[in-house]
Amino acid sequence: MAAPISPELMIVMSPGATQDQTEHVVARLEEAGAEARVSRGREATVIGAIGERELLATIPLAGFPGVEQVLPIVKPYKLVSREIAPDPTVIEARGRLIGDQWFGLIAGPCTVEGREQTLDTAQAVASAGATMLRGGAFKPRTSPYSFQGLGQEALRILSEAREETGLPIVTELLDPRHVEAVVEVADVVQIGARNMQNFMLLAELGRIDKPVLLKRGPSASVEELLMAAEYVAKEGNEQIILCERGIKTFERTTRYTLDLGSVAVLKIETHLPVIVDPSHAAGRRDLVLPLARAAAAVGADGIIVEVHPQPEDALCDGPQQIRASEFGEFAREISAIASLMGRHIG
Ligand code: PEP
Ligand code: MN
Fold this sequence. Notes:
single chain, alpha/beta, binds phosphoenolpyruvate
């Protein structure tokens, strides 16, 4: 097996550097057995050099034509860091976009409970202009006696909802044994908060060709979230959306404490899009709109919100799900704030 490699140097090309000069640097790095990732930004081209630090040190990169600066990457996360790719990553699924100028409005039931409930919700969120449809097929429940999701049957219902509405599907992958089944239906594969540090699962997702929505663990630091994303990126999949969904604190008035400060930090630290889940953070329907507004205002790239036709009958997370009939107004309020931030619903 190949030894693990990580990017060690960042080569910043000068603004006037030519394509040939960039290619020359890349060729020299590759000759030395290193891998080069070129990121062509608006301001400058940056080359991340992945290889043995000692070996890289033998190449006089600083003197190469067109090279402005050679910097070591000191952060523990590398591929996901903004240093290596100064421009924001935009995630695309079935023509829908999240990141940079595109604000993602992902909405749908916590859990797929049946055909009618899912199709009704899908229609409601689609006509309100949602970007994607969410819905759990395999549910990570705190109690083994709680409803665990409809599994395969739910995946069939989600495909039907996509056919009817054209919305891409976001659904959670819980178990590496379900990778094939989930990836076949999902347009974006969600990794739940409880699995944020399931490193084997993350590595599996690094080998698929679908975007990953990675939720922050309730007790995970921002750095741990970025390192989890690095696991996916390292295997070759850099289509990752990060999601702040609330962390555990001493506070009991909300289900979790929504850490909007982390969103501001992440927007500086990484080029990946960062979205917010106000539903799981709040745990209460009446707080979802104000938290979603704050998310849009802090600079999040989108939100993921739970919507149900009759939340009082929901099999999971009823108290926090927004009524489908009220989602149109909710979407209007959020898109107004997103547009103040220079974003359009993707
Ligand atoms: C969910 O989005 O349905 C979910 C279970 O969220 P989390 O993993 O953030 O608890
Ligand atoms: Mn839920």
